[in-house]
Amino acid sequence: MVEKIYKVPNLTVDAIVTRKKNSADEILLITRGREPFKGCYAFPGGFVDYGEDPKHAVLRELQEECSITGVEPELITVSGAPDRDPRKHVVTIAYHVQVDPTHEVKAGDDAATAHWYDLEVVNREFTMAFDHK
Q: Is the pTM of this model over 0.85?
């Protein structure tokens, strides 16, 4: 019997982290340190390791890229358009993740920067990687 080989998309996760500061809504973003979209803003995230639960992966990626511990990932959406990532077909699971909003964030891994930004300014002015806008 000949086994059929299937091409399958890769799986990534994104952490959407928000907080209230004064009366403004803020969102945690990184700037990408590598291509594709080097220098563009993005949600913290990355590839799910083989054998890893996506909920664990999103918390791991948040810790690696922003040096902050997240809890209670809640599913927001799944994006899988074949051309959303120029490298290959990638399906992303986006989660809203809770963090302690007073903890300092610090870029790590492949993130060039990690900061809190005013959500209204992000919506109006920022160039985002992938389909993160």
A: yes
